[in-house]
Predict the 3D structure of the following.
Amino acid sequence: MHPTPSDAPKRLVLVSDHLRIPYANGSSFASQWLVRALGARGTDVTVVGPDDPLATAADYPPRYVAMPSLPFRAVPGVHLALPSKTALREIARSQPEAVIAQAATALLDVGVWLREQHGVPMLSVNTLHLPSAYNAALPPFLDRRATVRLALEKTVIAFGEAQSVDAYNRGDGLVVLSSGLAQYWRDRGLTVPAHVIPRAIDPSHFDRPVGADPFPALGHAPKGGRLLCVCRHVREKSLHRLLEAIATHVFPASPEATLTLVGDGAERHELTAQAERLGVAERVFFPGEQSRDTLVDWYGHADLFLYMSLSETYGQVVTEALWNRLPAVAFDDGMGVRDQIAAGRDGELVLPGHDRRSEDAADAEFGAHVVRLLAAPELRRQYSAEAGRRARFRADPSRVADRWVKVLGEAKAHRDAHRQPVPSEVPLLARWAGVHGLAFGLGLLRAPQHPASSARVPGWDVTPDPRTLSADDEVPPRPSGLQPPTPRPS
């Protein structure tokens, strides 16, 4: 039995690491989609996150509470929220019936605070694989030192994951985006229920007809050899490894092949310099950040999607490519990417290796799959049809919205079965401030890395989308007595 709009909570707090969306990233777009999907079912959503000094009122969602914040200097656009009694009282005044804490930082403790002080059912969402992403804060000379990385993994990473598990276990359930991560967190001490919910695709962006071919404007990029990767140009996406593998194992065997890296980020300048050093600059293109409305054209006119990232709790761009019937070759990460690609049906998965020798072998195998598929257009067509079919089943917005409403109901039942005395809030708020103070200090290790372009990501699109409703349901009227949006601080 499908949930109906009446099953959804009427008022909900959504905790997000970004109130202003500083760059294209799956977590922020997932937060936007949740506001739209739950709004279509009658839920009034207040978004809670860190204040961003660069934001305008138009950058923020209609209903929000901005917490005071510190910048995470190593990654411009990221801010670390700090506890504020004024902001917490404002959050409580919205009288939420549930809280979704979709955060990778100690901002999770907003959800814990609501759960412990006001009895609000709390669902956490895991959005970051810390062991794969922490080195974004390290300067290159430290990142290259195995002893430094090992020491940090045994201290900072272990501490950070322990804090996350504690926050998760003080709630009523953890939403993960792939089955591998459910076991990952159980192995680290998770005791509350784990729910696997993939991210939905927004048909308004990805179901429109494919438009004009954008590849000819880049240079010589003949059809049949177009390799595409879409992601932020940051260290954890393994773009340097991808570029090296394609230059070594694909370009010599496929003379007409080209690689297009759509996106922008801190590593953009280093990637363009690497392409020059490898002698392949004329076959590697950097068109920069592209709007979601034009991504369908890139996916639709490419021949293969490539992905080597090992940091994905999900990897939304993989589903976007498959939804647009673009076969994929990717690393088997044991997490989000593995759950999306069916090897031999809509793409290929390659084990990434665990040391230099096995990594070299993995890169060669990755390249061999790419060369083979470029030379087999009929096989690519078979993969293409299966990619679209499987992605539309997995990422159907009404199906995913149904799952969210069901799990929110299960969180309420868990809260009812695990009521506890109200603890003091002081230790929780002190932990929150301490963790973000430590993160702020770590962010000072690396000079800020700015994107190559100054493209501005669009603000919150929160108009309820009726396509997220179950069959035969209608968009319910907006509830009366809504609180006005929090005014933007002057």
Observations:
- The chain has two domains: 5-200+396-468, 206-394.
- The first strand starts at residue 11 and ends at 16.
- The mean pLDDT is 89.
